[in-house]
Amino acid sequence: MLKEFKEFALKGNVIDLAIGIVIGGAFGKIVTSFVNDILMPPLGLFLGKMDFANLFINLSEKEFPSLKAARDAGAPVISYGVFINTVLDFIIVAFAIFLVIRQINRMKREPLPAPPNTKECGFCFSAIPTRATRCPQCTSELK
Of 44, 51, 66, 115, which has the maximum CB count within 10 A? Predict the structure, then answer.
């Protein structure tokens, strides 16, 4: 059983998958940073100096100045600003993956079919090599 597991784990597909997961995790961190640190601040400024990460609905009876303060106090909150950031992360990652897959599919286009190596005799309609000058079935001369 250990030998079978070793063969399975060392197959190319499993290693490729592991590498893909590691690179995907790193890519996810880059996209999260892009959304939180580059995309959302100007969008928040454009929408009236709004910080999306600090948008929340307080479900307790106390008032809290920020999401961090509410979480530190253990108050129940709906942090919809963080959800908006996460949705934007997903959209950007999905679009980037779409572009990569699209390029891979373009590179995998099927090659043109090979030219046929036979032709049909015009007299007996049998298949003959394209370079033949006479049909081997009916002995007709071909042009």
Answer: 44
